[in-house]
Amino acid sequence: MLVVSNATLAGFAVALGVGLLVGAERERRKGEGPARAAFGVRSFAAVTLLGAVAASLEGLAPFAFGGFAVIALVVAGYLRSSRDDPGLTTETAWCLCYLLGVVAMSDARLAAGLGALLALVLVSRPWLHGFLRNRLSETEVLDAILLAAAALIALPLLPARAVDPWGALSPQTVGRITVIVLLVNAAGYVALRLLGARIGLALAGLFGGFVSSTATIASMGRRARSTAGPQLAAVAGAAMSAVATPFLLMAILAVTHPPLLARLLPGLIAAVAASASYALIFVRRAAHAGPGVNPDQLGRVFELRYAVSVASLMAGAVLLGAWLTERFGGAGAVFGITATGLADVHAAAALAGALARAG
Predict the structure, then answer these.
(1) Model confidence pTM above 0.70
(2) For residues 159 and 169, what is the distance between their CA atoms, to the nearest angstrom?
(3) Mean pLDDT taken over the chain
(4) If we measure between CA atoms, which residue out of 42, 40, 63 comes closest to residue 52?
């Protein structure tokens, strides 16, 4: 008697579900009559099951046969519909569904998640096209591509090993600081576009403070200087970044040296109350300020030269702190932590916790 495991049944069920989900979205755009597209809900369900069957059979031959069959059908379908619709979205989704059927037999949850994501991308076509063509300018698209290239391509390629004599700073650390500044600038820009200067910059400052309050304050200063109108809102954003700092310090000290956190907890709670009270003053003033910023006055999403200069200043402060610690020992460590805090208070807290744990 043939025994089929629960994992195998789950794989086939997920493969069928992914095909039906993606195929249902494609069926709505397939059209009707002789000019309708070649692939619909039944075709997509069949191709995911084909991938699942190919993966369940032993050897490479079934997978290769299924792959060649899928490619042949894609070519035939495209030749049939290319005159009316030269796009390749349906054909690409068809090939991907075959591969998702293969994946479903080894990791059903991954295949289900990727299938749902594919269906979401397909169904969001009108919104994506309208957003990219009508809401974003060429400059904004270019800046988004540069930011993605810096974070996903350039940053991982930088050496992670420290290059200074004290082992305190690596090129990847400097690159990470640069990317953080770029991301904070971009977050402030998006917040201004979506929420306006009165609320957007305050929220951007609060969330940016959990990453780097120093970079956030520097970015808000640039925003206030370069954009007409939102000076009060930029001050509110800079002040809100200070509200996030004590919370993050508590988390860092809880990991590095809990006894030190216990001694500093009253001061950190007072810092939260003081920074929140101070920030709310400017948030209220910004809320009652004049009209928001015209989108044409926002300028660039970020400036790479500015981000590099901020990262260089922060890196210099870290190097100064490392030199003081190495040169003067325990007494110099106090000044070293202070100098490091000028660059990044979170790094200074981590350094203090590590030194306290080491005695």
Answers:
(1) no
(2) 11
(3) 78
(4) 63
Which residues, 6 or more positions from 332, have their beta carbon under 8 angstroms from its beta carbon?
A: 324, 325, 326
Q: Whole-angstrom Cα distance, residue 232 to residue 289? A: 8
**pLDDT value, residue 86:** 65
Residues 6 or more apart whose Cβ sits within 8 Å of residue 35: 84
Q: What is the CA radius of gyration of the chain?
A: 28
Show Cβ contacts of residue 184 under 8 Å, excluding neighbours closer than 6 positions: 204, 208, 211, 212, 215, 216, 219
Given a cut of 50, the residues of the chain with pLDDT beneath it are 1-3, 228, 293-297
pLDDT at 3: 46
Q: For CA atoms 143, 151, 182, 274, give the dihedral sign.
A: positive
- Site of tokens 């084909």: 50
Is there a contact between 292 and 197 (Cβ–Cβ < 8 Å)?
yes
pLDDT in tens, 259-300: 888 888 999 999 999 999 998 888 888 777 655 544 444 556
* Cβ count near 308 (within 10 Å): 16
Amino acid, res. 72: A
Residue 283 zone, left/alpha/beta (φ > 0; ψ -120 to 50; rest): alpha
Question: How far apart (Å, rounded) are the C-alpha atoms in residues 103 and 106?
Answer: 6
Report how far Cα 230 is from the mean position of its chain's Cα atoms.
26
Q: Give, in order, the Cα–Cα distances in Å from 243 to each of 187, 239, 268, 274.
A: 17, 7, 10, 9
Q: Give the pLDDT confidence score for residue 282 in this predicted structure.
A: 86
Q: Please state, in angstroms and rounded to a whole number, the distance separating the CA atoms of residues 349 and 212.
A: 13
Residue 123 sits at the vertex; the CA angle it makes with 130 and 69, to the nearest 5 degrees, is 120
Alpha carbon distance 226, 336 (integer Å): 34
- Return the structure tokens found at 61: 């031959």
